[in-house]
Automatic annotation (TrEMBL):
<protein>
    <recommendedName>
        <fullName>Thioredoxin peroxidase</fullName>
    </recommendedName>
</protein>
<keyword id="KW-1015">Disulfide bond</keyword>
<dbReference type="GO" id="GO:0042744">
    <property type="term" value="P:hydrogen peroxide catabolic process"/>
</dbReference>
<dbReference type="GO" id="GO:0033554">
    <property type="term" value="P:cellular response to stress"/>
</dbReference>
<dbReference type="InterPro" id="IPR024706">
    <property type="entry name" value="Peroxiredoxin_AhpC-typ"/>
</dbReference>
<dbReference type="InterPro" id="IPR000866">
    <property type="entry name" value="AhpC/TSA"/>
</dbReference>
<keyword id="KW-0963">Cytoplasm</keyword>
<dbReference type="GO" id="GO:0005829">
    <property type="term" value="C:cytosol"/>
</dbReference>
<comment type="similarity">
    <text>Belongs to the peroxiredoxin family. AhpC/Prx1 subfamily.</text>
</comment>
<feature type="active site" description="Cysteine sulfenic acid (-SOH) intermediate; for peroxidase activity">
    <location>
        <position position="50"/>
    </location>
</feature>
<dbReference type="InterPro" id="IPR050217">
    <property type="entry name" value="Peroxiredoxin"/>
</dbReference>
<keyword id="KW-0560">Oxidoreductase</keyword>
<dbReference type="GO" id="GO:0045454">
    <property type="term" value="P:cell redox homeostasis"/>
</dbReference>
<keyword id="KW-0575">Peroxidase</keyword>
<dbReference type="GO" id="GO:0006979">
    <property type="term" value="P:response to oxidative stress"/>
</dbReference>
<dbReference type="GO" id="GO:0008379">
    <property type="term" value="F:thioredoxin peroxidase activity"/>
</dbReference>
<dbReference type="Pfam" id="PF00578">
    <property type="entry name" value="AhpC-TSA"/>
</dbReference>
Length: 210
């Protein structure tokens, strides 16, 4: 089920912040009323597509921050594994230099609550409790507003990397809607024409964009 329009599930979990410090009680609650959050899940540390995404978010971090948006990543790895990866040089497969928080969802409850865990527990014919599927997270991405409401979500399968610029576009669209009360049509970008959510507004927009 989609979380769009619903409260983002809150949690307290270990995380690595500032690329070097482990904290035990990291929570998205600290951002409510203060900032929007791009909260994203990735499958595993020390893999292949994952570092390209994590580093791409870091490269665009200033763009998110100037828009008042926090970026937070999460996987089902431990906080110690996160730290080891963060301390590993990029030319050796690491993500050294990443400064935004990486959450350790070892219990897999956060991924499960966000609907991105790639499997589930079940009972076998012998009555044994087994995990069916992959006990890691899909590439889920959530845009959470200042009230703690999920305004956008996407979930990619393991081999499909994200477009970070698209997340910036969605942040801009959310800000435009909140500031101007207009809606953003297909392929809208900052600086382009939006429209009023009326028949007249749609007609005017379509006429001017023939």
């Amino acid at each position: 089920m989609s979380l769009v329009g619903k409260k983002a599930p809150l949690f307290k979990a270990p995380a690595v912040i500032n690329g070097e410090e482990i904290v035990q009680d990291f929570s998205l609650e600290q951002f409510i009323g203060e900032k929007e959050v791009v909260f994203f899940f990735y499958p595993k540390d020390f893999t292949f597509v994952c570092p390209t995404e994590i580093l791409a978010f870091q490269e665009k971090l200033a763009e998110f921050e100037k828009r008042g948006v926090a970026v937070v990543g999460a996987s089902t790895d431990t906080e110690e594994t996160h730290l080891a990866w963060l301390l590993t040089a990029r030319d050796n497969g690491g993500i050294e230099g990443v400064t935004y928080p990486l959450v350790a969802d070892v219990s897999k409850t956060i991924a499960n609550n966000y609907g991105v865990l790639a499997g589930d527990w079940n009972y076998s014919e012998e009555g044994e409790l087994v995990f069916e599927g992959a006990p890691i997270a899909y590439r889920g991405t959530f845009l959470i507003d200042k009230a703690g409401i999920v305004r956008h979500e996407t979930v990619n399968d393991f081999p499909l990397g994200r477009n970070i610029d698209e997340m910036i576009r969605l942040v801009d669209a959310l800000h435009h809607v909140e500031k101007h009360g207009e809606v953003c049509p297909a392929n809208w970008e900052e600086g382009k024409e939006a429209m009023e959510a009326t028949r007249e507004g749609v007609s005017s927009y379509l006429s001017s964009n023939k």
